[in-house]
Amino acid sequence: MKMHYDVEGGEFINVGTASSQFKKTLKMLGIGADIIRRISISMYEAEINMVIHANGGSIDTEITPERIHVVLQDQGPGIENLDLAMKAGYSTASRQAREMGFGAGMGLQNMKRNCDELQISSVLGEGTRVEITVYLNQES
Amino acid sequence: MTIGSIKECLEAHYYCGEEYQGDTLEYCYSCDLMSDVLAYVKNNVILLTGLVHPQVIRTAEMLDIRAIMIVRGKRPSEEIIEMAKEGGIVLMGTRHSLFTASGILFGNGMRGEEITHDENAL
C-alpha cells in the first residue's frame, strides 16, 4: 500500500499534517500501537525538519507485510556536515522554529532511536533524502 | 489521578475533552520544548506546558498523549482547540505557573518520567 504527501514549506502551523494522516491510516490497518508510535515520531521529526530547513518537499510511504517504509525528499539547501547534524544538541534551526518548541538539535537522534533503519543522503544545493524503515515482525 | 481530579486540583477548566474526565493518568511531563517531549516521553502522561501552538497538539497526537494542561493562564486559539477535539485529546487551562502546577500534581501522587539527564544524554 503506497501513499504520497506533499508538504508545504513556510507553513509552520500545518507541520505534521502528513504524519497525522499517515498515523490514522496505520491505526485503521490495525498495526501495533508501539510500531505506530515509533514510525510516527520518526516521520514527524523528519517532516518538521523538511519545513524548518528545506521549505517543504514530498513524502512517499509504503506499507508491506514486512515493513513500513517512509521516504522524505526535499529540494532544500542540503546538509553540509551530516556527522555534525547527527550530534545531539547541534541545530541550525531558525528563531521561528525554536518559538514553536523545536530546533533543540535532537530530531535526527530521536528519529534514529525510534526506527530500525535510517538512511540520510544529502547534496549541497540540491536537497536531502531521508529514508525511515520500521519492521513489522520484529521487536524494537 | 483521574483527569477530573487533576482539573480540580489545579483549579483548571476544560477547553475540550470533558467526557474523558474519568480516565486515569499516572505520569506527568512538564515542558515548553516540544523537541524534548518527543525525545523523552514514554509513559501515558499529562503534558503541562506554557507553549500555545498547534504543534503542541501535533506532538501530543504523535505520542498518544491523552491530556494537555496549558499553564500560566495562556489561551489556545479556536484552531488549536479544534485540533485537540479532532484528536480526542483533553485540553485544559490553569492560571498556575508550570512549577506550581507540577508541584501540586506531584504532591497528589503523580509521578514524573523516570529520566535523569547527564551531559552524554540525548
From TrEMBL, chain A:
Stretches assigned to coiled coil: none
InterPro entries, per database record: HATPase_C_sf, HATPase_dom
Domain of life: Bacteria
Ranges of residues in domain Histidine kinase/HSP90-like ATPase: 48-136
One Pfam family, short name: HATPase_c
Identification of the protein by name: Anti-sigma regulatory factor
TrEMBL record, chain B:
Organism for this UniProt entry: Anaerotalea alkaliphila
Pfam families from the UniProt entry: DRTGG
Domain DRTGG: 6-103
InterPro entries: DRTGG, Ser_kin/Pase_Hpr-like_N_sf
Record-given protein name: DRTGG domain-containing protein
Signal peptide positions (record): none
